[in-house]
Structure formats: structure tokens, C-alpha cells
Amino acid sequence: MDALEAISQPTRRRIVARIAELGEASVNDIAAPLDITRPAVSQHLKVLRGSGVVLERKVGRRRLHRLNPDGLARARAEIELFLVNELDELETAARQVVGRRTTTEPR
Question: Residue 104's pLDDT is what?
Fold first, then answer.
């Protein structure tokens, strides 16, 4: 899963925001204010790690999570590419629809 797809899910965006707030945090710290279970947070973190958005380091038995600036930069680049490509195509399609309506409407 790419970074954009990983952060497109609302719960994962809340997890990313929570990690950004804390700097580095355990699953318990991340889950505390969220309305989801620790195992669910762990599953979302697995996706975020796999996409490169979050990094993990082990300290004894604990696993601490922090944001990966490179992964976030990739997500940003993917968002910008989406905006340029997809929205340009949508705008073109919308203009074509409007143009067809104008030429097919009775005068």
C-alpha cells in the first residue's frame, strides 16, 4: 500500500496526528484518546509502517512509533500528483459536459 492510500483512511489520519502531537509514542499512548482498541491501533500502525509513513523502534519490550519525514514527503508528492493529474482530468471532463449541453440545447 502506498503512503497516500495508507493515510486516506480517517482512523489512520487520526493516528498520524496523534503521533505528530506526541513525537514518539507507544500503542497505549496513541490509543488513549482515540475511540478504538489497542489491537486496532496496532493493525493501523502496521499499515502505516508498511507504507513508510511511520517508523518503529524497540526499547526493551516496548515499541515506539514516530513519523517518517521521507514517508510523509512521499504522501505529499502523491497528493500533489493526484491534484495535478486527476483534478485536471475531471476539470476537462466537466468542461466537455458543459460544452455538450451548450451545443445540444435548443436556441
Answer: 61
List the domains of the chain with CATH numbers: 3-104 (1.10.10.10)
41-58 pLDDT, tens per residue? 999 999 999 999 999 999
| HEC assignment per residue over 42-92 | HHHHHHHHHCCCEEEEEECCEEEEEECHHHHHHHHHHHHHHHHHHHHHHHH
Phi, psi for residue 24 in degrees, rounded to 5: -150, 135
Q: How far apart are CA 36 and CA 44, in angstroms?
A: 11
Contacts of 81 (CB under 8 A, 6+ apart): none
DSSP-based three-state secondary structure for 62: strand
Cell triple for 107: 436556441
